[in-house]
């Protein structure tokens, strides 16, 4: 995986798959690539965050589809599956039954999976967050998911550079 100078100089086609593992939105990937070269990691993360703020509802929904349900493992063997397992490592198997029930209620309400940047969160904390978000209007919840996608993308970009 490239460090920042290598990231700045790598051919776009080499980086495109890695960036798509961070956030599976082609327009976001293009925006991050177009901003190169970045002076430092903070500039890269700021540009990525700005690009993520502009996601359309359809782009958010498409990006959600690339994530497993909270409490479930991602399929496939790519970096995104490994990153997801790391990100959800604090979500204990003991909460799996309650998470499955809560996930079902969320999906019934919003029509898509519940998504949260789970890094550092326990299963109990995830359940509290999920429950609190069930009261959101659908349009507000989609923007909350957009912010969670941006947080996940930032964490994953850091992994791309390490």
UniProtKB/TrEMBL annotation:
Catalyzed reaction equations: 5-hydroxy-2-oxo-4-ureido-2,5-dihydro-1H-imidazole-5-carboxylate + H(+) = (S)-allantoin + CO2
The Oxo-4-hydroxy-4-carboxy-5-ureidoimidazoline decarboxylase domain, residue ranges: 8-157
Coiled coil feature spans: none
InterPro entries, sorted: OHCU_decarboxylase, OHCU_decarboxylase-2, OHCU_decarboxylase_sf
Molecular functions per Gene Ontology: 2-oxo-4-hydroxy-4-carboxy-5-ureidoimidazoline decarboxylase activity
Keywords linked to the UniProt accession: Decarboxylase, Lyase, Purine metabolism
Pathway in which the depicted protein is active: Purine metabolism; urate degradation; (S)-allantoin from urate: step 3/3
EC numbers, comma separated: 4.1.1.97
Short name of any one Pfam family annotated for the protein: OHCU_decarbox
NCBIfam families hit by this protein: PRK13798.1 (NF010372), UraD_2 (TIGR03180)
The protein's name in its UniProt record: 2-oxo-4-hydroxy-4-carboxy-5-ureidoimidazoline decarboxylase
Organism: Saccharothrix lopnurensis
